[in-house]
Design brief:
The chain is built from ten helices and eight strands. The chain is α/β, with parallel strands linked by helices. Helix 1 (7-21) crosses helix 2 (31-46), helix 2 packs antiparallel against helix 10 and helix 8 (189-196) packs parallel to helix 9. The relative contact order is 0.19. It binds guanosine-5'-triphosphate (GTP) and magnesium ion (MG).
């Protein structure tokens, strides 16, 4: 396995692995097979693919409100478009909330996705209060029986202002499902990201797996956050989003 997993995750896996192998009789010549079997078991134990959209929507308030949060450039806005397109294909209507009022061109970027997928976008001015944008998007969703998908500004945990703003957005709008969006290229940095958003997200979306196929980020974020990986992003098209399947993932990395 040549994944860029975090040291912490690698150590946790090693420990589990030794535990799993201990006491098992390993016949000569079968060691490799046994170890691979044990690695598979340990990884499956560590990874969580239990996110179930139908169930999450069932449990959600009316209207269902989803937030996308994460560091700069992780893929939040693109993923808002992908999720919106996917839900619309499933027969649900969505409204996109332009909750990134901070980065130049972010509103236009979301509007382009909205127009491509045929979804309304609720936006205010740049520099305006993103909690109010989200509020209006949720109200629209309520009136029109839609799912509200709220984009937020990319941040790093040193951005106290942006973090405070996000906390306010959450407080005011009470999202039913908050996704932390991390990108596969972030490697070990996903640990810092999980920490920055600790307690704020329900599930993870890992993007750019087409660029970094090693999947190390998936293992590291799973180990650190203990949250399910709901979806993976595998390209720049709207259809490049998949439900995360841990068996498939483990098969791929052990191949
Ligand atoms: N190859 C690939 N590129 C992706 C994927 N998801 C997003 N991107 C690209 O990553 C870049 C950043 O994506 P954005 O959606 O703008 O990321 P963001 O998190 O909204 O960025 P900020 O708002 O600036 O924090 C864009 O060029 C996207 O096309 C993916 O799954 N695969
Ligand atoms: Mg964005």
């Amino acid at each position: 396995m040549k994944n860029n997993v975090s040291l912490e995750a690698a150590e946790a896996i090693e420990e589990e692995l030794l535990e799993t192998l201990r006491g098992r009789e390993v016949k000569r010549g079968k060691a490799e097979e046994k170890v691979e079997e044990a690695v598979r078991e340990v990884l499956l134990e560590l990874l969580d693919d239990s996110f179930d959209l139908a169930h999450a929507l069932d449990e959600a308030s009316e209207p269902p409100v989803m937030f996308l949060m994460g560091f700069n450039g992780s893929g939040k806005t693109t993923t808002a478009g992908k999720l919106g397109d996917m839900f619309e294909d499933m027969g649900m209507e969505v409204v996109l909330g332009a909750g990134d009022t901070f980065r130049a061109a972010s509103i236009e970027q979301l509007e382009e996705h909205g127009s491509n997928i045929g979804a309304k976008v609720i936006s205010h001015e740049y520099e305006s209060d993103p909690a109010a944008v989200a509020y209006d998007a949720v109200e629209h969703a309520q009136n029109e029986d839609k799912i509200a998908i709220i984009d937020t500004a990319g941040r790093s945990h040193s951005d106290d202002n942006l973090m405070g703003e996000l906390e306010k957005m959450v407080r005011v709008n009470e999202p039913d499902i908050s996704f932390l969006v991390v990108d596969a290229l972030a490697g070990n940095d996903v640990l810092e990201q999980a920490e920055a958003y600790e307690g704020m997200f329900d599930a993870v979306i890992v993007t750019k797996l087409d660029v970094d196929e090693s999947g190390g980020a998936i293992i590291s974020i799973s180990e650190r956050s203990g949250k399910p990986v709901a979806y993976i992003g595998t390209g720049q098209d709207y259809s490049d989003i998949e439900e995360f399947d841990r068996e498939e993932f483990v098969d791929q990395i052990l191949d």
